[in-house]
Specification:
This protein is of the alpha+beta class. The chain has 9 helices and 16 strands. The strands form 3 sheets. Strands 5, 6, 7, 8, 9, 10, 13, 14, 15 and 16 form a 10-stranded antiparallel β-sheet that branches. Helix 1 links the parallel strand 1 and strand 2. Helix 2 packs across helix 3.
């Protein structure tokens, strides 16, 4: 990769990634790159550092961390007007789903060697935005429908992390990821997600949802019903355990949607068990591609609790 001005943004992960910094920096310097190092110090700092590096028109901005770190770097670049910087990754997280998806070596030193010998590639970037809230007169006391859009390659002007490379989720996973203990995650890895799941699952209920392609509802509803989870995929792997959207590709200009429907307690547990066993859920009722999607859901004083982007954050409705 012919890049000379780079920025390496590091998530220390309680010191776990610091041990490899010198080796990674040596590889970048040997490749002739002038690299600025920056260490994440607090929540949201990674995105600020990425935005600053992009405004300085650094040729390459490298995220050294997990999918959440990469998500913040991508959002930092996307929030700058020119968006000329190329984004790279050195895996240093818990699941490293993006690295698995595109074949980046898990070892940081090997990943750095692969990076300096790679070629840049255009990929799709998803975008989530709140379209609006409404209170129908007939159900004002009990419903608050919320419309949301998911699109490819659409910029935003604020500092919210609304772009994603992997997936966006509406339903139980937003609550789960929003309550994962980071100290516990650093110690026990994906088991921390299991602990959060056990806590949030009893509180989750199905919610009414409508999904249609395009900007206007009159273009045709593709699916409606009650769902436990809606997954909008730009990639195939979900949580690095199952191909929830197996036909998704990172550069096809489309978004794939997978809806897991509500059922009786037995079928619900069957679906969740299927996910835990790393199988595609049996009761998936809708999966369709589309470059721009609208989703309307009713919040009945319970679920859904929000959106998550790249399994890294919780966005309230």
């Amino acid at each position: 990769m012919k890049r000379k001005q780079a920025a390496l943004i590091i998530n220390p992960r309680a010191g776990q990634n610091v041990a490899h910094i010198e080796a990674v920096q040596a590889i970048l310097e040997a490749a002739g790159w002038n690299t600025n190092l920056a260490l994440k110090e607090y929540g949201g700092h990674t995105m600020e550092l990425a935005t600053r590096a992009a405004e300085q028109e650094r040729d390459l901005i490298i995220a050294y961390g997990g999918d959440g770190t990469l998500n913040q770097v991508v959002n930092g670049v996307m929030h700058t007007p020119k968006r000329r910087s190329v984004v790279g990754l050195i895996p240093g997280g818990t699941a490293n789903v993006w690295a698995s998806e595109i074949g980046i070596p898990a070892n940081p030193v090997e990943a750095a060697l692969a990076l300096v010998g790679s070629q840049e590639r255009n990929v799709d970037v998803g975008h989530v935005e709140v379209e609006g809230l409404c209170l129908p007169a007939s159900t004002q006391a009990e419903k608050v429908p919320s419309g949301k859009k998911a699109r490819k390659k659409r910029p935003t002007s604020d500092g919210v992390r609304q772009h994603f490379l992997l997936m966006a989720g509406l339903g139980i996973d937003a609550a789960i990821m929003g309550h994962v203990s980071k100290p516990l995650k650093y110690r026990v890895g994906v088991l921390a997600v299991g602990a959060s799941t056990a806590k949030e699952l009893p509180e989750h209920r199905p919610f009414p949802v409508e999904i249609w392609a395009g900007k206007e509802k009159n273009e045709g509803i593709h699916w409606q019903g009650e769902a436990l989870q809606v997954v909008i995929g730009n990639t195939r792997l979900y949580a690095d355990i199952v191909q929830m959207t197996p036909d998704a590709h990172i550069d096809d200009g489309q978004l794939d949607v997978c809806v897991i429907t509500a059922g009786n307690p037995l079928t619900t547990m069957q679906q969740l068990t299927s996910l835990l066993l790393r199988h595609h859920p049996d009761n998936v009722t809708a999966e369709f591609p589309g470059g721009a999607l609208c989703i309307a859901c009713a919040r009945l004083g319970r679920a859904p609790t929000g959106w998550q982007c790249d399994e890294a954050q919780k966005l309230p409705l």
